[in-house]
Structures are given as C-alpha cells and as structure tokens.
Amino acid sequence: MLQKYIAKSPWVFHVNTGGCNGCDIEILAALTPRYDAERFGVKLVGSPRHADVLLVAGPVTHNVIEKIKRIYEQTPDPKLVIAIGACSMGCSVFQDSYCIDGPLDEVIPVHVYVPGCPPRPEAILKAVLMGAEALPEILKKAEKGELPPAPDIKEKLERYTKYRKKVAEEASE
Amino acid sequence: MSEVIRKGYSEFVRIPIGPIHPALHEPYYFFFELEGEEIKNVWIESGGVHRGMEALALNRNYLQIIPIAERICGICSNSHPLAYTMAVEDAAGIEVPERAQYIRVIAQELERIHSHILWAGLGAHAIGLDTAFCYLWCLREDVLDIWELLFGGRVTHAVNWIGGTKKDIKEEDIPKILKMLKNLRKALPEVVDAFLYDPTIVRRLRAGTLTKKDALRLSALGPTARGSGVKKDVRWGYGPLAYGDLRDDYGYKPIIHQDGDVYAKTYVRLMEIEQSIDIMEKALDDLPSGPYRAIEGKTPKVIATLKKVKGAEGIGRHEAPRGEVIHYVRMEGGEGPYRWRPRAPSLNNNFTLPAMLVGCQVADIPIVVASIDPCFSCTDRMTFIDENHRKFVLSYDELIKISREKTWGDA
Amino acid sequence: MKHEKLLEDMKRILGDNFISSYQKGEPEAKQLWMRIKKEGLRDAVKYLTSLGDPQLSFIVAMDLEKITNPIVEGESGKKLMLTYTFTMFHEDLGGEMILNLVVTTPKEDPVIPSISDLCPLAEVYEREAMSIVGVEIPGVEKTGYGKWTPPDFPEDIYPLRLDEKGLPDDMKRRFRWREELEKKKGGDQNE
Q1: First-to-last CA distance in chain A?
Q2: Domains parsed from chain A with CATH numbers
Q3: Chain centroid to CA B112
Q4: Which helix (H) or strand (E) holds B227?
Q5: B134 to chain A: closest CA residue
Q6: Is the ipTM of this complex over 0.90?
C-alpha cells in the first residue's frame, strides 16, 4: 500500500558526506523550474525522518561516517538510498586520502547508483523515479533476507584509534 | 557545552548548530549563546569536509592536481584550478599568451555571474521569497548552458591548463554568448528592484553589520569586505590576467557600499553581476587572436618543461565570486609540486561571522550566514539545548520557517 | 616607490633579524619575498598592522626535509618553514602588493611566536600549522576553527610531515579492489 504512494510522490532528503558541493547544486537545480521535479511529486524535505529517499553525495569523510549511519537509521522504512556522483560510488579523486572512509556502499546499503561528476539533474530525477518504482521488489527481497546486511563500520571507526594505541604503546615501551 | 551561564537575571542558552550536518559543503559547527532571542556569542568548529587534499597532492603530478583543485568546491570550480595554474606559472616564469588570459577572464566572469545569481536565489529562499528563488535559478540555467557550450560541463568545466586554457573559444559561439548576456541584462532590473527597493525585503536585509574597522582587522574578503566599504578587489587592485588591461582601457572600479549589513552585500553582488556582464562583452569584443597555450604539446611535454624548474616558489591570486582565492606552490624539480597550498575565501569570511551575528536574532541567522555566501546548509540542522539540558532539534526547514515568519508574519 | 620604502622600514625595524629579500615584478614590485628570523616576526607584524591597511591572507606551513634546491642558503634539512602572506595597498588600483614573510625553525625546537593578538585571523592558520606539520605556537589552543583533522586523529602524526612523523604507509587508504588485487598477487608469490 505505502509503496504505491511512495512511487507516486517520493520525498527526498539530501546529504553531503564531505563532497565538493557540485552534486548538491545539481540536486537543487533538479527542483527548479527548468527540470521541475515537483511534477513527479518529488519534494525536498528538511529532516531525514520525513524522507522516503536519501540522496547521498560525497566521498564519506572520517568526520561524518557516524552521522551518515545515524541519518540512515533515522529514516523510516521503507527507504531507498541513492548514491549520487562519482565520489559516493568510488571516492573519485579522493580515493587515496587518509581522511576518506568511503565509498558509500561500505557504510550503508545503497540501492541506486548515479554516475557522473556531477550527474546531470535529469539523471538524478530519473534515479529517484526508478528507485521508487523498484521499491516493492527491493522490499520483497529484504523480507526474504536476500539483501546483503548493512555493512559493518566498526573497523573504519577504529582506524585512527588503532594508531593512537600503537603510538602510545611504543612510547611506553 | 551544556552548562548554562548565569549573568544577572538573565540566562544564556547555548545552541550548537551543525555539527557536520552533511548537507552542502563546508559543514561547520557553530555554537550560539543566546539571551532570549538575541545572540551573545558565537564559536566555530570545523573539519567536516576535510579530505586531506594537500597530503594527496604530494603523490600527484602537476596536471593531476588540476582536477583535484576543481573539486575543492563545486561552485568555484573554475577559481581554484585557475589560481593553481597561475601559481605554477608564477613559480616557473611561464608567460601566458594574451588570448588565454582573455579566455580565462571570460570564464571567470561567467562563473561570477552564475555564482552571484545562485547566491541571490538562496538568499531569497532564506527570507521566504521562493518566487525569486525559482526565477533566479531559471536565469542561472541559461548561464550553465553557455558553460556547456564553451567548455562542455555544467558544474565542472576543466577550463584551465598550465600555460593557458584547455579549449579555445570558437568564433561561431560568440553570438550565442552575447545573446545570453543581453537576455540576462534585460531580466536583472526586476531582481534588483525586488531586493533593493521592496520595503519588506529591505527590512529583513538590515541585519548583521560588519564595520569597516572589523572588516580590515579580521581580513574579510570579496563582497563581504566591499559591503563594509573596504575598497579591495583583486581584479582591479592587483590586476591579474587581462584584468589590468581592461581596467586601464575601460576604467573599471571596485563596487563598494558603506553600510556593512546584508543589504550592502546584496547591493555589491547584484551590481557585480551587471559589471561582469559588461566585462564579458568588452572581453569578447577585445578577444585577441593567437595561440591559447604557452607550452605546445600534451601532458609529457608540459611535465618535462615543469620538471626543469627547481627551487622556485609562486603565488596565484585572483578574485573568485566570494573573494580572493590564493594558492601557493613550491617547485623542487619533481613530477609534481613539493607543496601546494590552496586557500578559499570562505575560510577568512567565516571568521567574520561572530562579529556579524552578535546582537542579531535567531531568525536572522540564515540570512546573515548566507550573506557571506558560504554554502549555508552548515546551518542545516540545529540542536537547541534549553536550561534543563533537554535537547530539541530545529531543522533547517524550521529555521527557515522562523525566518519567514519574521518576514511575512504568521503566514 | 612604495615597496622600496617598505623594505627600508622593515630593514630598520628588524636589524639583525632581517636575512634577505627579493621581488617579483618590475619596476614596481607585485610580490615581495622576505626571509626573516623568527625572533623578528612579531616586530615585523606589529609594524605592518600599525600601517592599518595590510591584511593577512594565509600562512603556509611546510616541511623542508626533502628540499634539494634551497632558495636561501640553509633553508633545507630538518627544518619547518612558515610563510606569512600579507596583501597591502588595496586602495591603490593597479598597485596592490603581496608581502611574504618567511620564517624557518629547526625541528628540535619547533616554537614560533604567535601573532594572533596582533592579527586575529592568524589564530586559524596557526592552529592549522600546528595540526599539519607540528609547529608549536604557544598561546594557541589545539582545537577549534582551523583544526581540520578528525578529533580522533593520532596526536603524534602530522599529515604533511615528510619524515617518520608523517603518515605511515598503511594509513594511506587504498581502494578496496586494489587491496584485494595486491593480496592476490602476494598469495601468488607465496605459492
């Protein structure tokens, strides 16, 4: 029942996980008259608790990893996660950096990927609609337990702590 | 953080804003200390979008840094690579051909137009003027079409190359650019009218004053400084690229306003759109012929040329939409720079926020923060803590709602 | 000439603490690069702020460990370098100038005086320099606006140091598939 309505009017919340802002202005551009997302019932909301779809852009910096996990948990089920742009798909130019914990699918489950740096507003719009339409299938899979479980980020969170311990141990020896 | 400071009969309430609310770029962490509705003190913390770029650049060559520089900020995506290439050219002593300098000026002014329109739209959104927001973003799409036509990208353009530009401007594209500029010039007066003469909006824009003395002391940059009467514009003062020639030929001057509040900054930005349209028309008119790259040949040739430069330091500096962008490059004869240090104008401007926000009301936060043009979704999510240490969250929407209620009443 | 007067004044104020200088741009200097000793830093900045006009643009922190072609003699080896960039003469269209004050300090004694009381913005860049190359600036807090590295970042590692205090190899993040590829390669060699 609910899924039917979500497909008619997906409410999106957009999250930047430390990207360059390019994807974010394209998401905003998709809402303005030229692309007019509202004709499909797509609406940008101000809180993850009201959202059906999370649009996530950026390479997931170490500082935001816990927050992005929390936002994912705050979003009510059924929910969709759309990874926008090359950064959230594979960290793009930042992939070797010490401060990056991405890509996004190692932190939260992702359903739709939108390639491009940044993707065009049309692509973002299409991804939202495609995702919303595919939602019943995703839910069925989830009920049967066929979807992979949420990734474990404990190791990533411990990344710096490990070094701090190591340094402390070396100092004490 | 959670303690309540007592001062006489009143209580200060502390509000953290942020932290890294991951919405748009620069997710800073603001702490506000309130007395009733009035802001008494502000702190800023940072680090949400730290991506370790400078450390990353240690393992990149000179040309690989250009795309990294482009992705420092998606809105200034021409300013950073331009400043970086200028820094390398300054260190290596490469003379940039005149045509390339003009193309860079055109690209830079195009970016200023698009960025200021974007700012005006977001500013209008923050005070509840959604019609203006949609109208302005519609105008911006025309500018993006020209970006796409000239350089092939809406947001990331890849204009710059060391010693010149990556692409040339074709003769047949020039009429299309001029047509867009003409349309824009026609559409602007309506926006200027709304922002500068509508009494409701003007009343909302009279907030967040930065005095000239503070602007100088805190090293404010760009429209933030010029709105406070500081006559500082890198284009006309320092004269990088072809700006020096354009200034001497047509007598351009920095646009300043003495008031120092949000209104003054709005005035500076809107007038700068007009000035930029003018500059672009003049630059397209004066576009000299000739080569557009100093170093002939592709990547290996450029790297080989730059590899010969040892023990040199250079600074690239020009005016981005938000203020002065400055990059430092140290060359030591490797494939890449020994040290590359970018600095965006928002870093300096955010430091002036406390001076502006103290004395304002909570409802003024969105527009005052927006007035320096950071990507203001750093105010996206605020947690209010009242004196009983109960947390309640004020989302960006609610904040905007408060702000709008101040404009329109209980609409 | 403005820059000549500035140079003379600086030499007079700094005395022995002045090392050398060069300019870029002829005849009027666009950039002035000035090497000074760290003892004279505060005097120089005090003089600049008294002019009223100069603004701090940024501070560049750098490790000189791998420098092979020093610009000034002795500017290499186990030392850290800070470049303070000021811009001045904004009101003069066409005559704006950059002044760079370059200060070095040995790594055994990485203490550089703070100028944040003279120029408030400097605090941000000083904090950054402390967190990325490990300079010690007394009187500046380690956390706050300007510290970019994550709060749980190890205290003894400075990302832009090029010696043993820099990033360890295994902390530089690798792409997942590449890691797997390397594992596979290693496995093949073992077999």
Answers
A1: 63
A2: 2-172 (3.40.50.12280)
A3: 8
A4: none
A5: A32
A6: no
